[in-house]
């Protein structure tokens, strides 16, 4: 990470942290390791982000469309982080569930040999960190702060939307039909800004107040 200019590391439920073996291997990069933050959940790790990318070697049923990692660096930098120009990598020591992937903004894969596409976590992080580095070199300077919605704002929108859809009868608890996952895919493509989230929640609130959500 430090080789590629990335400094903020968040770990989700690490088996052991800090770890003496990690310190021994972090030659010249102890500052990154010591500043790492252990999080109790993916939600905590994603807090404050405006664009997050999950990695997988294959497509996952009803999920985001697979994005080549050669594009995710430029996209992540183009989205930016609200109020900051720094980038974060999140690591996990197991496979992400479909539910966890849908909490991210995009799903990326590394175009390796299809007959043997196995990469361990460190290798995958290094490849993506390199793509972020290349994307940063190529990205034009932003002339204004991008007002993209944070992870928390998006999650509050989905919680509000789900309540309204249940109240309207459109979303049936016994037969949800993966509706919320499909809506997550739709809004992930749109890349909502904070003002757009506020507009949508204002519309939902107006329908809720009238007792006619969804009409």
Provide a concise account of the structure shown:
The protein contains nine helices and six strands; from the N terminus they run E-H-H-E-H-E-E-H-E-H-E-H-H-H-H. The protein is mainly alpha-helical.
Please explain how this structure is put together:
The protein is mostly helical and 215 residues long. Helices cover 45% and strands 10% of the residues. The protein contains nine helices and six strands. The chain has a three-stranded parallel sheet with strand order 2-1-5. Helix 7 packs parallel to helix 9. It is elongated. The termini are far apart. About 7% of the residues have low confidence.
Architecture blueprint of SSEs:
Blueprint: E1 8-12, H1 20-25, H2 30-34, E2 37-39, H3 42-46, E3 53-55, E4 66-68, H4 69-79, E5 88-91, H5 98-102, E6 106-109, H6 121-138, H7 151-168, H8 179-190, H9 194-210
Parallel strand pairs: 1-2, 1-5, 3-6, 4-6
Helix content: 40-55%
Report the mean per-residue pLDDT as an integer.
81
SSE order, as H and E? Answer: EHHEHEEHEHEHHHH
Number of helices: 9
Biggest sheet character: 3 strands, parallel
Multimeric state of these chains? single chain
Shape: elongated
Strand portion:
5-15%
End-to-end Cα distance, whole Å, is 49 Å
Which structural class best describes the helix and strand composition?
mainly alpha
Number of strands: 6
Strand order of the largest sheet: 2-1-5
Rg calculated over all Cα atoms? 19 Å
Instruction: Please mark out the parts with pLDDT under 50 across 5 or more consecutive residues, or reply none.
Output: 80-93
